[in-house]
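User: I've been trying to design a sequence by hand for this structure and keep getting stuck. Would you show me what you'd pick, starting by listing the structure so we're on the same page?

Assistant: Good idea, let's start from the same input. This is the structure you sent:
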């Protein structure tokens, strides 16, 4: 694993990447395993997430606190879901909507760390969104990443980011106004 970090030329970035990995490796593996239900696939997902983190290390703060934890968990969860869907597609079995929604039942770092009363209603409505919308909205509006940066971190296209933002904002607007969701 150490050879992966050696690819970073900047010593401070290398130390940050190593610190992130050391602090979050167990939770990364746990999140990946809870989705993939296979130890080898979970390890592969964690390794892919580490590569993604290294490639985007400049986007991480030197503090390995809650923001970093959220970003790491979003990245590993997205990679694990992509791997899960890939495995399902290549084993000629499709994933049902109930199975997919059951993959998102774990409490997210945002849910654990966000305790400010002024944000509680908004955060509870954001948390109630499906993770594909929730993650994009948090990365865009809470952490301030651009669509390009979000697409790069999650391994999806910018067009997908824009569509998920639009749909997520529409769902959030309906929740906040007390309306019913169309989706």
């Amino acid at each position: 694993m150490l050879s992966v970090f050696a690819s970073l030329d900047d010593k401070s970035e290398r130390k940050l990447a190593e610190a992130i990995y050391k602090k979050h490796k167990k939770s990364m593996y746990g999140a990946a395993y809870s989705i993939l239900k296979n130890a080898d696939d979970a390890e592969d997902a964690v390794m892919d997430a580490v590569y993604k983190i290294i490639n985007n290390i400049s986007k991480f703060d030197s503090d390995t606190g809650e923001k970093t934890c959220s970003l790491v968990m979003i990245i590993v969860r997205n990679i694990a879901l992509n791997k899960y869907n890939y495995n399902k597609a290549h084993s000629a079995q499709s994933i049902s909507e109930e199975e997919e929604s059951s993959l998102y039942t774990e409490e997210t770092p945002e849910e654990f760390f966000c305790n400010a009363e002024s944000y509680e209603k908004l955060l509870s409505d954001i948390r109630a969104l499906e993770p594909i919308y929730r993650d994009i909205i948090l990365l865009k509006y809470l952490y301030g990443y651009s669509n390009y940066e979000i697409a790069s971190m999650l391994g999806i296209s910018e067009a997908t980011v824009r569509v998920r933002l639009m749909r997520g904002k529409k769902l959030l607007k309906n929740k906040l106004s007390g309306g019913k969701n169309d989706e």
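That's my pick for every position. To get oriented when you compare it with your attempt: The chain has two domains: 10-97, 114-183. The chain has a mean pLDDT of 78.
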